Task: structure prediction
Amino acid sequence: MNRPILRHVACAAALSLAACSKAPPQALGTLEYDRIGMPAPAAERVVAIKVREGEQVAAGQSLLELDPTHTQADLAAAEAQAQQQQANLLELRVGPRQEDIAKARADLAAAEAQARDARAYYQRLLPLQKDNYAAAADIDRARAAAGNADGQVAAAKAALDALVHGTRPEQVAQGEAALAAAQAQAAAQKVLLGKLALVSPRAGRVDSLPYKLGDQAPVGAPLVVLLAGDAPYARIYLQEPQRARLRVGDTVQVHVDGHDKVYRGKVRLIRSEPEFTPYYALIGEDAARLSYLAEVTLGPDAAELPVGVPVRVDYPEAKP
Result:
């Protein structure tokens, strides 16, 4: 057999072996960004939208504003309530005025005078009872009036003592607690007012603006959805047989569907709990296997890649 024929036979054998050899294992997934949803802090109308969908924004950049009128009124009411409680507490700490104490002393003196008069009248009626010059009913009324006057004296004396001794510590503590509650309410309203002007917490790209100018979103509804980060990452699913071949920090090659360029990435996360294999990773016998979610960071050269595009990640070569 001559040399050309031998070469053809060798090439045919090599092609046959290559066709029969099994393709290297790959992990499948998609390109993703860290999504940041910014919920509505209050059910207010959208009065300003400062960005558009797809726009790149910096950290701290103004995004959207809600109508602050209602919250400003609530803040003013809360601040007024705090001022009132502060004045009440100051009054408790200062104690009663000297004029109030003087009035209480005068009330006590007047009550004592009435009590002396009532007792004297009762004492004058007692001798008249023997000769029936005074009715028993009149004497009973005089006795009751004298007792009532003595009670008025005791009440006036207690009121004077309360003013002289000043405010109780428990009343001051209650006033301090009421003031703290009012101030906390005012602070909460101030924080809420600040949240009505939404700013970007991180640099990223505006992915979605679900509500338009004039809309009123319910509390908790996402007003802005951001895609954070300079570049997307690959969210992949590791097949169970190859799970041990990949570790956090490994450098891998990432193939993006529709792109000839091969991107380099680094594994940043591998979940310890397995998940069921997603529908797009069902390959033959692997359909019944579990997969482990992992994330691979990409470099700045992948910044313009779209979200959701399928990717394939080559497993690193097995180490001897």
